[in-house]
Amino acid sequence: MSTDSDSFRRAEHTPQLFAEVFDRHAAAVESFLRRRLGADAAEDALSETFLVAFRRRGSFDQTWDSARPWLLGIASRVAARHRATEAKHWRAVQASAAIDGDTSGGIEESTARMDAAAAIRALAPKIAARSVKERDTLFLYAWSGLTPEEISQALGVAVGTVWSRLHRIRRKLAPPGSHAGRLAWIGKEMDDGTVRARA
């Protein structure tokens, strides 16, 4: 099976083969953008991300087999250009967490939804207050599951910078008295304004 690096090499001479990269990663990039910007803006941002990626395809480091970190780095920069949309989406997420009165399902499901809603109400303003660079690092780590090395590639910064940002984010966002070594407490997902606990 070919890698993204193979696709990029072939696309140098046959640009339409870049579609292979889109087919492999569009779903992951769109999911990331939906969480950042909401469903309405995600589709346009996805198109913009892949247009930028196509134009810059010659700058992809072909020593990496997967283009996912590189594409998510572009998506992060696209999302940052839509700051007003992102801020509006965060307000909607926070509001939906505050009014989520869904009582369907059993007690465990209801409790999980209430816990997730409470976490979002507490975290949303704190996350929104972080710098764009810190939010990008956090979202690539928590939502896209990138390693610090992949985040370094995605954002074009040193790995040590990524670790430093993650450490600072933990300190700023962790619940009082928490000594968690990971960002497990942020293990909640938001899709289209719906709060749900991560499985």
Question: In short, what is this structure?
Answer:
By secondary structure, the chain is mainly alpha-helical. Helix content is 66%, strand content 4%.
Radius of gyration: 18 Å
Number of helices: 9
Report how far the terminal alpha carbons are from each other: 30 Å
The main pleated sheet reads as: 2 strands, antiparallel
Uncertain spans: 110-116, 180-199
The strand order across the widest sheet is 1-2
Output the structural class: mainly alpha
Count all strands and give the number: 2
Q: Spell the H/E element sequence.
A: HHHHHHHHHEE
Helical amount: 55-70%
Taken as a percent bin, the fraction of beta residues is under 5%
The pLDDT mean sits at 77
Coarse morphology: globular
Features:
9 helices, 199 residues, single chain, 4% strand, mainly alpha, 66% helix, two-stranded antiparallel ribbon
